Amino acid sequence: MSSSSILFYLNGQRVTVDEPDLDMTLLQYLRSTGLTGTKLGCGEGGCGACTVMVSRYDTDTSRIVHTSANACLCPLATIDGKHVITVEGLGTSARPHPVQERIALLHGSQCGFCTPGFVMSLYTLLRNNPSPTEHEIEECFDGNLCRCTGYRPILDAAKTFADMAWKQGTVLADGTVHVQEPSANGGGCGIDGCCRLQKSPAPAAIVHEPTEAPTSAVPARCCKKGQNGGGCCKSRVDSGVAESANQAEVDKAAVIAKFQRYDPTQDLIFPPFLIRYAKHATSDAEPQLRALDISSSDPQAWCKRYIRPLTLGGLLSALEQHPDAKLVAGNSEVGVEIKLKRAKFPTQIYVNDIPELRRISETADGVTFGANLTLAAFERALEALGAKHGAQRTQSLAALRENLRHFAGNQIRNVATIAGNIVTALPISSLNPVFLAAGASLTLASSAAGERTVPMHEFFLGYRRTAMRRGEVLVAVSVPFNSEREVVRAFKQAKRKGNAIAIVTCGLRVKVDEQRRVVDAAFAYGGMAPTTVLARAAAQAALGGEWGAPPVLDAVLGACAQELRLDFAVPGGMAEYRTALTASFLLKFWAASCAALDIACAESVDLEEEDQRVVSKARQEYASVEDRAIVGKGVAHLAALKQTTGEARYVDDMPALAGELRIGLVLSTHAHARILGIDGELALALPGVVRVLTAKDVPGENHWNIFKDEEILPTGEVHYYGQPVALVIATSLKLAQDAARLVVVHYEALPAVLSIRDAIAQQAFFAETRRLVNGDVDAALAAADFVLEGSSYCGAQEHFYLETMGAVAVPKGEDGEMEVFATMQNPTVTQMVVAEVLGVPASRVVCRVKRMGGGFGGKESRSMLIAAFAALGAHHTGKSVRIALDRDEDMQTSGQRHPFYSKWTVGVTRQGKILALRARVFSNGGFSHDLSINVMEHALAHLDNCYRIPVTDFVGRVCRTNTQSSTAFRGFGACQAMFLSESMLCEVADRLQMPVEAIRELNLYQRGDVTPFSQKLDGWNVPHMWDQLKAKAQYDERRREVDEFNRRSTSRKRGLAMLPTKFGLSFGPKFLNQGMALVHVYMDGSVLVAHGGTEMGQGLHTKMAMVAAETLDLPLESIFISETATNTVANTSPTGASVSSDLNGYAVYNACKELADRLQPYRKRMAGEPFAKIAKAAYLDRCNLTATGHYCTPDVGFDWEKQEGLLYFYFTQGVAVAEVELDTLTGSHSTLRVDIIMDIGRSLNKAIDIGQIEGAFAQGQGWTTTEEYLYFPSTGRLFTTGPGSYKIPSANDIPRDFRVELLEGADTSALKTIFSSKGVGEPPLFLGA
User: Where are the alpha helices (DSSP H) in 109-151?
Assistant: First the structure.
């Protein structure tokens, strides 16, 4: 008997759902019930924002299995019999679970959108292993992405659960926190009163003498146990720099010492009922575990029937009745096809609850694995079998495990199965080449024909075609043991080490006799043909040959090159690279197998097989703050605990209002075309579709942005592939999106320009030109010893904020009022755009934002369009309308970092001194102006980076192309410009045969020098920081070590680079350099602060609250910031340009200072009384307890036509040293160590600013390594539309040793900013390049 109801537990409570929606995912269900802590980040299982823990009882092993899973890919109907725990089930901000507490208080949450996913991944690990190793902790996050933190603080927090973590780090004795470290790694020497365990004294002022590295005085209480008789016990003789006590470690120790103890017995138990349910041991009066057979009555449903058998016989019977049914296991492939390709599978059979398909059996010859073993269980089984049978017999199993290490993330491996990986027959499978090389065989079964065995080499017939017959199912996979003198290895290359689709993957096997003659060989490859293939000619070339002899290697490589050729236009591209990888993998295998067989290999290739990734470590350094009560301290983000517990609300977490409607976008299918007509008749015919809106439905102004050259909805032409053409308003998101695909748009295709080079060739530019000209460049070039010409290019970058763009518009029902809640960095201009679109005064529109899940500039201007869509829908329907973009929609429509291209001519002396630079700089602005002219201005002003160039001729043009409008992105053109300049310097260094660091150091600006835009460099600390970091990072010693490593190593090479940066702080348009604030003191003594900045993870609200508390002389807990809204603080500047703390901080200060002055008489008269009484007394005395604050940056304002004025208020500066190892055979790289020092003035919050530095670095690292923006050249359609194809750095990509230090002791007396602080959000990004 089957059932149509599902039963499961949710956070400890039993739930029964009758006839569940077959198209609904677990994520959709959770959010519909108000559990919005689980987030939608991508919808394809690639980001981990939707991670939950799913537990089940395994009847075969009689144990409870806890797994992390992607709720976005998990069909609700598959949850029957399981226990789901979400982030809300762990704790609350008032009573957090230790995981939530530690990530929050150790600064592991910035924007917070990804945080619940990290919490649940770590929680799942602890449920399975309460005392994990640090390596296991790092690996548990391989399916989670974060765009803000750079991962370091998340890992630090998580490692407090490690078996040996922090045992040498913190001691709380007699109320005093001490910091201890192993003496071998640079901690206290063990003598009581060691200088390393003291607080650091106030740093001495910097003396700007660049000739010698700075030194620190030995503290008075130093134990004097340094080397060579004296000096600080922890001083390095080779650097000459003594390390003083580090407040960052003291702060961390103090937080850790107060953590609640983790007690696994206090976690939610697995419901005993579910154990009896799984064992079919429930009573007659209780629900019974039954097969499921559920039908949908929804005519628009994608899945019409869902069948869940519990036995293999039941599966075969169901498949006999429904031979065309789609078999679903982990749903990691089917779910993505449904989500992204809108595939429909009317009948689905779920196979993951069949115990027979998960069993493992052994014979003398090999192992047979149940085809429905999850990949995680498969990996554990492979490890156990290796330990049981020894390394030689299980080489094929070890090779499978090797490729599984980097297959997807934990959440996917926990649900995806062996069968799914094989049967989908994808050409880039990580496992199929290894199965093929190992000589595996498959057991297939059907109800009609019974079982049959198919050798793996006969199974794949073509692209996603196999030898399976209609009605068959894959039951098992058999892998033979290996014999003596047999070697098997697996290799895989992807854009990113973990959780990335393979570019090329392979399984390679060779067997030799006692004379080392090859008696058997198999070389299997994925990514080199429409399906997994054997390189038969290469294997044939090896047979009979002496393995280890160079002629055999040449024959094998030659045969492989002939056999695995790829056409230039091959799907997936990179034909030359992929072909090279096949040879590289063979070469690696050659050396590894020769070593394993004890054969002397003539090729000197250092092909040591990389073991598990080295556990990362990090260090942050800053001095204590003694002269302030609150400002400057390392206070945790004030919303961090709300974010780790899922309580923090984002726009799409807001509860839906009654009758709320959703928007589906109709997107252009041409890069450039004339619109001939739009027909929404088919869409409107669907029940529940309310309106189809086009340009004619815009009641007010249809043009927007600064230049008014972009339409809200297009009238005559579309200008890029994916441009919104029309809006469908419907009662549900699914219906709106389905209906949008029924809207017919008739086009006439027009020529399209898709790249910078094409635009330059066709002179497709926006009208504006920007110049910075100083001196006679031709004369300076003529006087140079060398004149070099060249070009440089840097590509686009996707913001990849974890929260996609969204908005909720609520019509107020009178006077045309509209309330808009949106993901926006610029509420004021969003208000103006919405008002203009609706044709009402701005006073009728209120825009609100509480927080955003990341922004990075991407929500400064492009989000206005999304808010306008919601408002337009609300205007026409009179109801609340919500829009929340899917990841692919967001990436197609939102814009990106500007690609840049430059042609340059530089003149230098023989010594490497730069005399003159002529640069013609081009950016890809996309189809509209947006902010591209300002980006170009900022870029030209940073072409010099940190170098004095006496004579310059810079000209910048913005190209007009048929791509999304490029927009603001962290760095705003500066990082692109510096990248172009540094690329040029590298070519100069090659020409002069000098180290590029020598050229950089030689040309560094000195204090008092003048930039190409005539700004004198006061407060210039780069030369000092260069010297300081060069000594502290042991650059010279490591340079010698790297050179020696490269001399010895033939295939692995290391690079060591030192790079400075300066970043100008101010908005380009003068009027934007102002901030506003409103502060209320209430009668109970609490304080409400409103300011013009928005919170997107950078800790702005936390810093503003700290400024208010410091100024009002109140505890931080007294200050509250609710949101940013245009009806409390009007006419605000966007949150961007790294100046939001400057502008809004001073505005908050001014308002609070006014209130403090008003309250001073009452405080004096009522000394010692609680502030609540003082505030009440002031109110009763009719004292105004509300104040507004305004601030405008003095002196700034640059005229680009006259090239005069002050362009930047100040510069944030930094220096970094990075060491990277590159595998020259594959292109894989590892960042071994990074040292950064940043001058950020007197930080408002040192811990938050350290996090900004680390996060910016990681974003810059991604921009120049793993992140690649790709279009289809024939259509202009964006290819990289989600985490499956676009790879931001993961936790496994960050530096293995990551050290960040804040410059201390610099003279900030002339820095006229709030508490002498500097902006930090953008400046460090370039150091990651």
Answer: 115-128, 134-139
Determine the distance from the C-alpha atom of residue 101 to the mean position of all C-alpha atoms in its chain, rounded to a whole number.
Answer: 22
User: Which ranges of 880-1018 would DSSP assign to H, the alpha helix?
Assistant: 887-893, 932-940, 974-992, 996-1003
711 flagged as catalytic: no
CA 1039 to mean position of chain CA atoms: 31
Radius of gyration (C-alpha) of the chain in whole angstroms: 32
Q: What is the pLDDT of residue 202?
A: 39
Q: What pLDDT score does 196 carry?
A: 39
Instruction: Report how far residue 216's alpha carbon sits from residue 220's, in angstroms, rounded to the nearest whole number.
Output: 12
Tally of residues, the chain: 1329
Closest CA to 917 of 902, 927, 930: 902
How many beta carbons lie within 10 A of that of residue 1242, not counting itself?
Answer: 21
Listed as own residue / partner, the contacts of 599-605 with beta carbons closer than 8 Å and 24 or more positions apart are 599/516, 599/547, 599/548, 600/548, 601/548, 602/548, 602/550, 603/550, 603/553, 604/1050, 605/1050, 605/1051, 605/1225
Quick one: which of 32, 69, 29, 23 has its CA closest to 48? 69
Q: Which letter, b or e, does each residue of 649-687 get, where b requires 16 or more Cβ atoms within 10 Å of its Cβ?
A: ebbbbbeeeeebbbbbbbbbbbbbbebeebebeebbebe
Consecutive H or E run containing 30: helix 26-32
- Find the angle CA(468)-CA(473)-CA(476) to the nearest 5 degrees: 100
CA 441 to chain centre: 40
Q: What is the pLDDT of residues 200-221, one digit of tens each?
A: 333 344 433 333 333 333 333 3
Beta bridge partners of 1178: none
Q: How far apart (Å, rounded) are the C-alpha atoms in residues 196 and 1304?
A: 17
Count CA within 13 A, CB hemisphere, residue 893. 29
CA distance 1262 to 697: 42
How many Å apart are CA 1103 and CA 619, to the nearest integer?
23
336: helix, coil or strand? helix
SS3 736: helix
Distance separating alpha carbons of residues 719 and 963, to the nearest angstrom: 7
Q: Which of 1290, 970, 1010 is nearest to 151 (CA)?
A: 1290
Give the β-pairing of 486-494 and 502-512. antiparallel
The segments of the chain whose pLDDT lies below 50 read 165-243, 609, 611
What residues contact 131, with CB distance under 8 A and at least 6 apart? 161, 162, 163
**C-alpha distances in Å from residue 1060, one per residue of 330, 584, 797, 975:** 48, 36, 22, 12
Q: Rounded CA gap, 89 and 67, in Å?
A: 15
d(CA 519, CA 175): 71
| pLDDT, position 605 | 59
Q: What was the pLDDT predicted at 342? A: 85
Q: Angle at Cα 1114 formed by Cα 1111 and Cα 1119, nearest 5°?
A: 90
Determine how β-strand 473-480 pairs with β-strand 441-446: antiparallel
- Classify burial at 793, counting beta carbons within 10 Å of its beta carbon; exposed 0-12, middle 13-18, buried 19 or more: middle
In this prediction, residue 1075 carries a pLDDT of 98
Residue 209, pLDDT score: 36
Residue 536 burial (10 A CB sphere; 0-12, 13-18, 19+): middle
C-alpha separations of 55 from 124, 350, 397, 1133 in Å = 9, 17, 27, 48
Residue 185 pairs in a beta bridge with none
**Number of CB atoms found within 10 A of residue 597's CB:** 18
**Of these residues, 249, 889, 1267, 1322, which one is catalytic?**
1322
- The reported pTM is 0.94
